[in-house]
Queue: 2 jobs
Job 1
Amino acid sequence: MKVDVLLGLQWGDEGKGKVVDVLTPRYDVVARFQGGPNAGHTLEFDGKKYVLRSIPSGVFQNDKMNLIGNGVVLDPVLFMDEAEALCQGGIDLKRSLKLSKKAHLILPTHRLLDAANERAKGDAKIGTTGKGIGPTYTDKTSRNGVRLGDIFENFGEKYTEARNRHIARLEALGAKPDEEELAKLEERWMKAVEYLKEYDIIDGEFAVNDALAEGKSVLCEGAQGTMLDVDFGSYPFVTSSNTVCAGACTGLGIAPNKIGDVFGIFKAYCTRVGSGPFPTELFDETGKKIRDLGHEYGAVTGRERRCGWIDLIALRYAIMVNGVTKLIMMKSDVLDDFPTIKACVAYKVDGKETDRFPYSIDADRVEPVYVELPGWQTPMSEMTSESQFPKEFNDYIAFLEKELSTPIAIVSVGPDRKQTIER
Ligand code: GDP
Ligand code: IMO
Ligand code: MG
């Protein structure tokens, strides 16, 4: 059996959670492979809305195994909050969810370090989600991390060594934590670590490969997006993990030759939250209109998302580094009443036109080149089949498929599970 991967092609918030939930009935296993509670994946069905941060979006379908892979960083407190809410809602999470022993833990001091690092950067701050993501991955790669599997052996020692090292670093940054406040955070954190012990903490790489050997199918759920990948994104304004398809291999223990379809998901326009360059960003009324109509506010932080036109240079690049086989277009309904739509088809870099994604996309070096297309000016959110698509929308799809040399397999016309059209 092959493993399919679903991942974001832009700067995150493309609608990954919604589509994973829609596709889950076709799979036996749904697995998260990177990121942590910086993610906010929104699902809507039966008139209810759910936001998942660390838990895979397959948990709402019965009889599926959901796995938090070794590539994920886990905050026990946020996990407990998220898990308890799901359990109270009737989800049998303790049966369906497994966690990899090799996932790294986000300590309370990692979050303090995240804030202190951002403060130290001043105007150059990344605009992180403040969840301790960067410091936790830093500890992982510098071989100082604390892993989920450690909670069963010499945990106190490992924890204390890490938190003392963090406190020394915080002091150097002029951000020595208040002892009483830290003690409170730690008490809650330790309680949450005990809660974690109620779950199956396993060798995730064996679980996935055993499932494949038994003929089971696996869907990997990405977090963030390709433009936030630590290698290929708009560095240094990125997250600290590999959000690209290769991250599914390292974040779960899946061999590259096991990868089947790679679903690349994008919005019919583009958004970004946090700092960093964004060539097609709109600062005018059109940008505001997209934000209002698309409810473009962060699921985790509530921050306004920056909005702009679709960027085909960035998308083509993302398709290349991920090996995308099928595209999924989200939120096309948000553009329903626009008389015209723009798409960036080239960049002018230092005055010279290129269709290649350059090393730097800083605003003072890159100018987007647009084509203008007619809008469809037809409400689409009630549509249930491709046959109902207006001509201009079909033309938009045909234009994108040609520019991106990849088929668009699914079109989403609203936040609900049901507002999903397969082609
Ligand atoms: P994720 O992080 O990639 O899972 O995406 P988010 O959940 O952070 O952001 C996507 C937002 O768009 C959520 O509020 C979804 O409910 C919403 N959404 C998803 N698909 C559609 C769509 O096709 N149309 C509209 N209008 N909203 C959508
Ligand atoms: P989902 O999975 C959008 C952004 C932050 C910041 C940068 C680094 O919901 O698509 P971090 O906290 O990871 O160190 O922040 O990355 N960011 C996201 N933006 N969606 C996300 O996740 C994001 N996760 C992180 O805003 O710019
Ligand atoms: Mg999100």
Job 2
Amino acid sequence: MTRGGGGASASDAIVAMAFTIACFCCSILAADAGTTYYVGDSNGWSFGSPSWPNGKHFHAGDTLVFRYVPWIHNVVAVDEDGYNGCTTPPGSRTYTSGNDRVTLARGDTFFLCTRYGHCNLGMKLVVYAA
Ligand code: CU1
């Protein structure tokens, strides 16, 4: 391809602008969809989960996926008192599918497992979303 002179042509500028706009649109879509995190990574939702959020930066709209064996564990979204005391406030949302998706709202979200003794053994999780 031969073209006289140096510098960018008008068509190069249009291509560059279109690319910039496309990237901008992609970043908006990505922000809307949020990021999906698998709680506990390959271990799933388990007794080792409390340390799992360390070093991660969650945002409102991100999705947590809790994977576990449903007849062994469950997931209950609780408040801070529930988290601290391993209690379940009335009306708490309970998840039991073993493959539960929870979209994070801004702030702290608290989860625990209500199967006997599990929370006291450390099966609880708090996630902060910016
Ligand atoms: Cu459990």
